[in-house]
Amino acid sequence: MCGRFANGLAYDEFRRSVASALPPDSFKEENQSDEYSPTYNVAPATRYPVLRADSTSLVIEVMRWGIPLNKLGSSGQGEPAAGHRVINSRSDTLINTKSAWYKMLTTRRCVVFCQGFYEWQKVRVPGEKDQFRRVPHFVGMQEAGKGRIDAYGRERRLMPMAGLWTEAAGEKEHMFTIITTPSNKQLEFLHDRMPLILPDMNSILLWLGIGKEKPDTEALVRLLRPYDGVLDCYPVPPEIGKVGVSHANLILPVSHRKDGIVSMFASVQAKNERASSDIKREATKDTLLPPKEVWRGKSEHDEALPAENVPSPSPKRRKTDRTRPAHTPSLDMFWKTS
Question: Spans of biased composition, class Basic and acidic residues (predicted)?
Fold first, then answer.
């Protein structure tokens, strides 16, 4: 599933990145920058720009993420909702011809471009039988293109997620939901479902119905499958779980973040290693100092030295009897005769 995703690009930069994934001049020049706020932590109910087809071309329109359950009537599929909104639609329920989802599949398709999405891995706490913790991961495209700069400074293209949109009666704005499929082999450790990622330009145009007078339902259904390419996937800090937290480091691996926990410990370890190295260097320096010059008497090298540079021998000291004090009086002076 997809409960959070990221797009920290300014509106103009976002449009250029979307345009790079499409044929030239394929959508209208409409500016909705006032209705869009870049964030690396897009949460349900956020207003977000999506790409959809109109009568003549493509258009980027800012919509609300999540379709109210009461607008779906009896066709609600029981998907996880935030604020009574369906944010994800299961791919296996779209082909039910009697549901509202099938009508949207044939008439109201859209593409949600983003830098990547977040998912939480359930990890057992060591030593605890029934205790688990949730480790957030970021998943982005690995292919080169415009839209995202990875931890090594390389450009990666935006992720095109397939979605559906609607204009429910009584609502002043359009709303969208993101389609999910079973996870591929790479991400099955993370969650049992993932967003429907459109792999290339042709699949994007097919999904949006460009060049087709009538929707090719069979071709659309063939797109409802897990992404079979390789994706960037790595752990990120748990702060992503807090709505409103947004900064560029959220989409970087923990180990590459300057403010990350791993980097903090690495910095402390490096500091300790430098301190230990300095101590060892000082100790080695003391042991390697040349010994002070001591006169050992005349040697074969003395003749080559100038007279003023030849040290003079120290005068010999008189040996004293250390068994008897120097000023001890003779015992004869204390001897008495009878």
Answer: 273-285, 293-304
